[in-house]
Structure formats: C-alpha cells, structure tokens
Design a protein that fits this description.
about 35% strand; 8 helices; about 240 residues
Length: about 240
C-alpha cells in the first residue's frame, strides 16, 4: 500500500510541475504552477530529481548538472557555487510527508478549537512572536481558511490549517509559539487539522525543514511518512530569471 501512496504523490507532483517525475535527473523550464517563479525549485522523490528553472536558465543549468550525482545537485552548496551572490535565499531541504485516512493516528486535541474571524488578531500576534521563515513555512493564512488553535487564556499559542494543493490533496501547516514548543501542543493542533482535512482530501501533505527535526517529529507519530523532499533557491532580483 505504501507504493500506492508514493505513486499518488508522484502523480500529484508531475501534474503540478508539468513534467514526469521519473528516475534520473531532469532539468526543465518552469511550467504550470511555477511559471512565474524567479528561482529554482528542486523535487526529490526516490531516485527521481526534477530541477525546475526559469526558461532563460535552462541551458546553463542543464550543463552545470550534467554528470553530477543527484546528492550533489540537491545540496544548497551546489547552487551557491553556481549562482553566488545572485542567491537571495535558500529554503530547504524540506521534508515532505504524506498520510491517508487509513494510516492516520490521531492524538488528543483537548483544548484545541476551530478558529473564526474573531481570531485574526490572535493570529497576527502569534505571527509577530515567530521567526519569519518559520511562519512562511507554516502556510498559515489570514484569508478565512479553516484553522484550529490552542489558546492559553486569550493568547493563541499554536495554530494549524489545511489548504488545497490538488483535486484530492490538501496540505497541513502549523506553527507553535517559540516559548511553548516541545510540549506536544503543535501535534494536537496538527492532529485536529489533519482529521478535518481527511474528511475532504484522500491525501494530506506536511512540510518540515530538515534542519528543524522537531517539526518533522511532530508529524511522524500521526502517520505522516516521508515520500519526497524539496529545495528552493530564490534569486535576489527577478531580472536574473
């Protein structure tokens, strides 16, 4: 059954990136959802590595990757050497875990409740307390997407939301106030959000930076299994793309 999950994830990314996710290294020009992205997006899944780049960079990046091992191309160091000061930010490598309803292992969500329009101010306060990169990775939005939160009195200390990523896939994002991490609260809000998401989607995705193992460890006991990984290279100026 794990092969079925892997193939479902492979099909999702093939549709999202507009190219097959097949064994080997494929360097391709941005398509589909990445068309306007001023940077490089790398997806790794089993023995496949897809490197999506802006169209003008297709030839030089293809030449740079030719003959290189996948492990080398999937390293931030490789891209810093290739583009130097043009690199504004690197995000990843990122752990991409997935779960289906049959594999989901919920935990107690006592103290967790649905967020509503009256909680937007609390979300902003939580955002201000968190590192900007952590918040960006969380996928938490202020647009009315259904979310779940854990409060200490009137203070929101953890939140989780599910956003649509495909016809049959949602993504669960979460964040916990830095002063409250390591107490299982993040897992509780992710469990509540995952239970809600699996009522709508057959597969859920969870992202966690590999340099932040606590984020990854939060998801594994809930049944999320690593299937893929990603690395993002953002350029300092869009004109470089």
């Amino acid at each position: 059954m794990s092969e079925m999950l892997t193939e479902a994830v492979r099909a999702y990314w093939a549709e999202r990136m507009g190219v097959p996710v097949s064994p080997g290294t494929l360097v391709t020009a941005h398509r589909e959802s990445l068309l306007n992205f001023a940077g490089v997006f790398l997806l790794r899944l089993d023995d496949a590595l897809v490197v999506s780049v802006p169209g003008p960079m297709l030839t030089p990046v293809s030449q740079a990757c030719e003959g290189r091992a996948r492990d080398e191309v999937y390293e931030a160091h490789f891209w810093h050497l290739l583009f130097g000061a043009a690199v504004e930010e690197m995000v990843g490598p990122t752990w991409l875990g997935y779960v289906r309803a049959k594999d989901f292992v919920p935990v107690s969500s006592d103290g967790v409740r649905r967020l509503n329009e009256m909680d937007v101010g609390s979300l902003w306060t939580l955002a201000d307390a968190c590192d900007a990169t952590d918040w960006q990775q969380s996928g938490i939005m202020f647009d009315g997407t259904v979310g779940f939160g854990f409060f200490d009195g009137d203070t929101l200390i953890a939140a989780s939301m599910v956003t649509r990523r495909g016809n049959d896939m949602g993504e669960v994002g979460a964040i916990t106030h830095p002063a409250w991490r390591g107490r299982g609260i993040g897992r509780s809000v992710v469990s509540a959000a995952s239970a809600h998401g699996l009522e709508k989607y057959s597969i859920l995705q969870y992202r966690g930076l590999e340099e932040n193992p606590a984020s990854v460890k939060l998801a594994i006991p809930l049944g999320y299994r690593r299937v893929a990984g990603s690395l993002v290279v953002r350029f300092a100026h869009p004109a470089l793309a």
